[in-house]
Amino acid sequence: MPGSRHIDRLAHGCKGVSLVPNNEADTFFGRQARDILHSCTGFTLLELMVVLVLVGLLSSLVFVSISGGIFRSEERRFVKDFNNGLFRARNASLGRGDTVPFLIDGENRRFSIGGTRWYDIPESVRVEGEGVTRMDKGIYGILFFPDGSSSGGELDLKLEGGDTARIYVDKLLGIIRISHVAS
Hints:
With 183 residues, the protein is α+β, with helices and mostly antiparallel strands. The chain is built from 2 helices and 9 strands; from the N terminus they run H-H-E-E-E-E-E-E-E-E-E. A 5-stranded antiparallel beta sheet has the order 3-2-1-6-5, covered by helices on one side. The longest helix has 52 residues, at 45-96. It starts with 30 loop residues before the first helix and ends with a strand.
């Protein structure tokens, strides 16, 4: 039609009738609007709900997978920091020429090198020891002496997943060895 503003419904995903009325009597809010609403294809509410439920389920599976990895990496980082703390206490003792304690506060779930700064022990890790020195009520430790020796002991860091990091500190040489024991 020359001079009319004809918009084809195909441009909007619908088939058939134009979006602009053909004459003045046929208004957009009348018969033609009803035809447009009933003839256009789209998604039903049920289809949208099914898609949203599927997206929710998939995202929860991804979250569970990622969160498990995050917790395991937190435990591994703790084991590394704990082990490094033992090495730092031994090296500080050798460097200063003084006895340096590596302390474990079981009641408050924390550890320290020399009692100056305390580091938290994650809730998912259980620390057990054998042959360690009782320093005070609820506080145990391994002493590192300036000659390189130590009070010795064996520490087990039991992780939530069932794995155990076993740390052995030699009495005579103060050497620190770590091994991983799978459950």
